[in-house]
Amino acid sequence: MREHKLSAWLGQGTPRGSIAHDGTIIPETIDTMWGTDRTTTVTIEEGQAAVFIAYDHCSGECVGIHASKGQNRFEALEPIRQGIKDYFGTARKNIAEGLSLRHDHGTQYMAHDFQKEIKWLGIKSSPSFVRMPECNGCAERFIRTLKENLLWVRHFKTIEDLRLALLEFRETYNEKWIMQRHSYKTPAQFRRDIMDKSAIAA
Protein backbone atom coordinates (compact mmCIF):
# COMPACT_ATOMS: atom_id res chain seq x y z
CA MET A 1 0.00 0.00 0.00
CA ARG A 2 2.82 2.39 0.90
CA GLU A 3 4.80 1.59 -2.25
CA HIS A 4 1.80 2.38 -4.44
CA LYS A 5 0.87 5.48 -2.41
CA LEU A 6 -2.44 3.99 -1.33
CA SER A 7 -2.00 4.54 2.43
CA ALA A 8 -4.42 6.90 4.15
CA TRP A 9 -3.04 10.42 4.67
CA LEU A 10 -2.60 11.08 8.38
CA GLY A 11 -1.69 14.75 8.19
CA GLN A 12 1.43 16.46 9.43
CA GLY A 13 0.32 17.27 12.98
CA THR A 14 2.03 19.93 15.06
CA PRO A 15 5.79 20.61 14.94
CA ARG A 16 7.95 18.30 17.04
CA GLY A 17 11.56 18.29 18.11
CA SER A 18 13.62 21.47 18.26
CA ILE A 19 11.05 23.48 16.27
CA ALA A 20 8.49 23.08 19.04
CA HIS A 21 10.80 22.74 22.04
CA ASP A 22 13.55 25.31 21.85
CA GLY A 23 14.17 26.66 25.34
CA THR A 24 13.13 25.17 28.67
CA ILE A 25 10.05 24.83 30.85
CA ILE A 26 12.14 25.20 34.02
CA PRO A 27 12.34 28.88 35.06
CA GLU A 28 15.11 30.36 37.18
CA THR A 29 12.83 31.62 39.97
CA ILE A 30 10.23 30.00 42.19
CA ASP A 31 6.52 30.74 41.80
CA THR A 32 7.04 31.74 38.17
CA MET A 33 5.53 28.65 36.59
CA TRP A 34 3.45 25.91 38.15
CA GLY A 35 2.23 22.83 36.32
CA THR A 36 -0.96 20.93 37.02
CA ASP A 37 -2.31 17.59 35.88
CA ARG A 38 -4.58 14.71 36.81
CA THR A 39 -4.32 10.95 37.17
CA THR A 40 -6.62 8.27 38.59
CA THR A 41 -6.43 5.36 40.98
CA VAL A 42 -8.90 2.90 42.51
CA THR A 43 -10.10 2.67 46.12
CA ILE A 44 -11.43 -0.54 47.66
CA GLU A 45 -14.83 0.76 48.78
CA GLU A 46 -15.52 3.76 46.54
CA GLY A 47 -14.06 2.73 43.20
CA GLN A 48 -12.19 5.10 40.93
CA ALA A 49 -10.81 8.33 42.32
CA ALA A 50 -9.21 11.32 40.63
CA VAL A 51 -5.88 12.70 41.84
CA PHE A 52 -5.05 16.32 40.97
CA ILE A 53 -1.61 17.86 41.54
CA ALA A 54 0.15 21.22 41.22
CA TYR A 55 3.94 21.47 40.93
CA ASP A 56 6.45 24.33 40.95
CA HIS A 57 8.66 23.99 37.86
CA CYS A 58 11.63 25.75 39.47
CA SER A 59 11.81 24.33 43.00
CA GLY A 60 10.35 20.92 42.15
CA GLU A 61 7.86 21.18 45.02
CA CYS A 62 4.43 19.67 45.02
CA VAL A 63 2.52 22.84 45.88
CA GLY A 64 -0.89 21.17 46.03
CA ILE A 65 -2.47 17.71 45.85
CA HIS A 66 -6.07 16.51 46.05
CA ALA A 67 -8.23 13.39 45.69
CA SER A 68 -11.90 13.31 44.81
CA LYS A 69 -14.67 11.14 43.41
CA GLY A 70 -15.49 13.77 40.82
CA GLN A 71 -13.11 14.93 38.12
CA ASN A 72 -14.59 18.34 37.35
CA ARG A 73 -13.14 21.85 37.13
CA PHE A 74 -13.84 22.62 40.78
CA GLU A 75 -11.87 19.60 41.98
CA ALA A 76 -9.06 20.54 39.56
CA LEU A 77 -8.83 23.95 41.24
CA GLU A 78 -8.20 22.51 44.70
CA PRO A 79 -4.40 21.95 44.42
CA ILE A 80 -4.05 25.45 42.96
CA ARG A 81 -5.95 26.88 45.93
CA GLN A 82 -3.71 24.94 48.32
CA GLY A 83 -0.61 26.37 46.65
CA ILE A 84 -1.97 29.92 46.74
CA LYS A 85 -2.76 29.60 50.45
CA ASP A 86 0.61 28.07 51.35
CA TYR A 87 2.91 30.18 49.16
CA PHE A 88 1.06 33.46 48.68
CA GLY A 89 -0.74 33.61 52.04
CA THR A 90 -4.29 34.31 50.94
CA ALA A 91 -6.63 34.11 47.97
CA ARG A 92 -7.47 37.56 46.62
CA LYS A 93 -7.56 39.29 43.27
CA ASN A 94 -4.17 39.37 41.48
CA ILE A 95 -2.34 37.86 44.49
CA ALA A 96 -0.34 35.57 42.16
CA GLU A 97 0.60 38.04 39.41
CA GLY A 98 3.71 36.85 37.60
CA LEU A 99 2.78 33.17 37.96
CA SER A 100 1.94 31.06 34.90
CA LEU A 101 0.05 27.78 35.09
CA ARG A 102 0.98 25.05 32.62
CA HIS A 103 -1.83 22.59 31.94
CA ASP A 104 -3.09 20.36 29.16
CA HIS A 105 -6.30 20.77 27.18
CA GLY A 106 -8.40 18.59 29.48
CA THR A 107 -11.98 19.73 29.90
CA GLN A 108 -11.37 20.54 33.58
CA TYR A 109 -8.57 22.97 32.76
CA MET A 110 -10.19 24.61 29.75
CA ALA A 111 -13.52 25.09 31.54
CA HIS A 112 -14.75 28.66 31.97
CA ASP A 113 -14.89 28.43 35.78
CA PHE A 114 -11.30 27.14 36.02
CA GLN A 115 -9.93 29.79 33.68
CA LYS A 116 -11.96 32.54 35.36
CA GLU A 117 -10.66 31.72 38.85
CA ILE A 118 -6.99 31.51 37.92
CA LYS A 119 -7.32 34.77 36.00
CA TRP A 120 -8.89 36.41 39.08
CA LEU A 121 -5.90 35.23 41.13
CA GLY A 122 -3.56 36.87 38.61
CA ILE A 123 -2.31 33.58 37.16
CA LYS A 124 -1.61 33.42 33.44
CA SER A 125 -2.98 30.32 31.69
CA SER A 126 -0.23 28.48 29.78
CA PRO A 127 -1.75 25.51 27.94
CA SER A 128 0.62 22.94 26.48
CA PHE A 129 0.64 22.04 22.79
CA VAL A 130 -2.14 19.61 21.84
CA ARG A 131 -1.06 15.95 21.99
CA MET A 132 2.37 16.92 23.31
CA PRO A 133 2.57 15.86 26.99
CA GLU A 134 6.27 16.81 27.13
CA CYS A 135 5.15 20.45 27.28
CA ASN A 136 3.72 19.62 30.70
CA GLY A 137 6.68 17.41 31.51
CA CYS A 138 7.32 18.62 35.07
CA ALA A 139 3.83 17.71 36.27
CA GLU A 140 3.90 14.48 34.24
CA ARG A 141 7.21 13.45 35.85
CA PHE A 142 5.94 14.18 39.33
CA ILE A 143 2.86 12.03 38.68
CA ARG A 144 5.15 9.18 37.65
CA THR A 145 7.03 9.55 40.94
CA LEU A 146 3.72 9.64 42.81
CA LYS A 147 2.56 6.44 41.12
CA GLU A 148 5.82 4.57 41.67
CA ASN A 149 6.10 5.53 45.33
CA LEU A 150 2.47 5.62 46.50
CA LEU A 151 -0.41 4.89 44.13
CA TRP A 152 1.01 1.64 42.74
CA VAL A 153 2.33 0.28 46.06
CA ARG A 154 -0.52 0.94 48.51
CA HIS A 155 -4.22 0.15 48.69
CA PHE A 156 -6.70 2.76 49.90
CA LYS A 157 -10.02 1.89 51.48
CA THR A 158 -11.77 5.19 50.80
CA ILE A 159 -11.12 8.41 48.94
CA GLU A 160 -10.60 10.15 52.28
CA ASP A 161 -7.85 7.62 53.13
CA LEU A 162 -6.30 8.39 49.75
CA ARG A 163 -6.55 12.15 50.29
CA LEU A 164 -4.77 11.94 53.65
CA ALA A 165 -2.05 9.69 52.18
CA LEU A 166 -1.51 12.19 49.36
CA LEU A 167 -1.08 15.07 51.79
CA GLU A 168 1.45 13.01 53.76
CA PHE A 169 3.28 12.14 50.53
CA ARG A 170 3.42 15.81 49.56
CA GLU A 171 5.07 16.70 52.87
CA THR A 172 7.56 13.82 52.66
CA TYR A 173 8.41 14.54 49.02
CA ASN A 174 9.00 18.26 49.54
CA GLU A 175 11.15 17.77 52.62
CA LYS A 176 13.06 14.57 51.76
CA TRP A 177 13.18 14.01 47.98
CA ILE A 178 16.75 14.87 46.96
CA MET A 179 17.10 16.47 43.52
CA GLN A 180 20.35 16.41 41.54
CA ARG A 181 19.60 19.69 39.72
CA HIS A 182 19.41 21.43 43.10
CA SER A 183 22.89 20.18 44.10
CA TYR A 184 21.27 17.31 46.01
CA LYS A 185 18.97 19.48 48.08
CA THR A 186 15.30 18.77 48.60
CA PRO A 187 12.64 20.98 46.97
CA ALA A 188 11.82 22.59 50.33
CA GLN A 189 15.51 23.24 51.09
CA PHE A 190 15.93 24.84 47.68
CA ARG A 191 12.98 27.19 48.31
CA ARG A 192 14.30 28.13 51.76
CA ASP A 193 17.71 28.92 50.28
CA ILE A 194 16.09 31.16 47.65
CA MET A 195 14.02 32.94 50.29
CA ASP A 196 17.07 33.42 52.55
CA LYS A 197 19.10 34.91 49.69
CA SER A 198 16.22 37.24 48.83
CA ALA A 199 15.98 38.38 52.46
CA ILE A 200 19.72 39.09 52.62
CA ALA A 201 19.62 41.01 49.33
CA ALA A 202 16.72 43.11 50.60
Summarize the structure.
This protein is α/β, with parallel strands linked by helices.
Describe the protein's architecture and organization.
By secondary structure, this protein is of the alpha/beta class. It has helices spanning 18-21, 73-88, 107-110, 112-121, 137-151, 159-176, 187-201, and strands spanning 33-43, 47-56, 62-68, 100-103, 124-127. Strands 3-2-1-4-5 form a five-stranded mixed β-sheet, sandwiched between helices. The model has no long low-confidence stretch (mean pLDDT 88).
Main pleated-sheet profile: 5 strands, mixed
Q: Helical residue percent?
A: 40-55%
Number of beta strands: 5
| Alpha-beta content class | alpha/beta
The string of secondary-structure elements, in order, is HEEEHEHHEHHH
How much of the residues is beta strand, in percent? 15-25%
Instruction: Work out the helix count.
Output: 7
Oligomer, anyone?
A: single chain
Query: Order of strands across the widest beta sheet?
Result: 3-2-1-4-5
* General shape: globular
Radius of gyration: 19 Å
**Which residues form runs of ≥5 with pLDDT under 50?**
none
Give average pLDDT, whole number: 88
Distance between the termini: 69 Å
Annotation keywords:
single chain, 202 residues, alpha/beta, five-stranded mixed β-sheet, 7 helices, 41% helix, 18% strand, globular
